[in-house]
Amino acid sequence: MAEGLRAVAAAKKHLRQKIADRLKYVSQESVLDQSNAIADTVRALPEYKGAKTIGVYMHMEISHVLPRKSGRNVEVRTDTLIKNAFDDGKQVYLPRIIHSSDLSDDLQNLFRTAQHRLRSDVESNYFPSRFLKMLKMPDYEAVQALVVQNEGTHAFTIKEPSHGDDALETAGLDLIIVPGLVFTTACERIGRGKGFYDNYVTLHKLASQGQGRRGPWLVGIGLREQLVRENDVVDTTVNSFPCEDHDQQLDILVVESDIYRRPCR
């Protein structure tokens, strides 16, 4: 089991570096063009049209801690998508990173319950030091006024809300726009290694089940340079896309005007 986990971790590391190397050469103009196309495509999704509450990631700001030439802070911009959501009458929630001690006791216990279901002892005993929560924004002007919290302390500098209604303490989210570094057309995803969205989705799904609600639709958005094919996985000890028990698969992936759906939800 431990050897298998190490092989998967190595394959993930390889794919992260492979995609980061590609992203070094993507121009800001291309990122903007692709982001606008993605915003239009998401807006036309039936799942988006039917959603009242939406969680959206904030794209990373370029940081002196992690130079752009690394490629790891190049991703789809979400400003147009967020503005569209407000224009379409959605309730919009944005992420904030908190210390695990700031998570309610009920949610901490819920997460531990989910972890104990994992097959690997390493994963089942893991409890992160930081969590993500989604806070409600009143309007797009409030989004534009956000600033980077604790700039310089993390490589990924992101504008965050300081307050707002917590989605998990209200009615929950109907749809979440999920970031990532690596994607496949089968709606598989590898993030940047922190586990924020995998952990959040795990919590949200369990909270939804406890309240008799369906979990949120998970919609990934990616640049075309972030898509990998089967021959990109070169570690022969991993016969398929490298995933661990805690990894959350997307329902939908949007790349420009292309829409990929997971075969069954």
Described by the principal axes of the CA atoms, the overall outline is globular
Largest beta-sheet details: 7 strands, mixed
Strand content: 15-25%
- Counting DSSP H or I runs of 4 or more residues, the number of helices is 8
In CATH's first tier, which class applies?
A: Alpha Beta
State the helicity in percent bands: 25-40%
What is the residue-mean pLDDT, rounded to a whole number? Answer: 84
EC number: 6.3.3.2
Protein name: 5-formyltetrahydrofolate cyclo-ligase
Enzyme class: ligase
Catalytic activity: (6S)-5-formyl-5,6,7,8-tetrahydrofolate + ATP = (6R)-5,10-methenyltetrahydrofolate + ADP + phosphate
Tell me what you see in this structure.
The protein is α/β, with parallel strands linked by helices and 265 residues long. The chain has one domain (2-261): NagB/RpiA/CoA transferase-like (Rossmann fold), CATH 3.40.50.10420. 33% of the residues lie in helices and 17% in strands. It contains eight helices and eleven strands. It has helices at 2-23, 28-43, 46-49, 79-87, 105-116, 121-124, 140-144, 196-210; strands spanning 53-56, 91-99, 130-137, 147-148, 159-160, 175-178, 182-183, 189-190, 217-221, 252-255, 258-261. The strands form three sheets. The chain has a seven-stranded mixed beta sheet, sandwiched between helices. It has a two-stranded antiparallel ribbon with strand order 4-5. A hairpin with a 5-residue loop joins β7 and β8 (189-190). The longest helix is centred in the first third of the chain and has 22 residues, at 2-23. The chain is globular, with a radius of gyration of 18 Å. The chain starts with a helix and ends with a strand. The mean pLDDT is 84. Its EC number is 6.3.3.2.
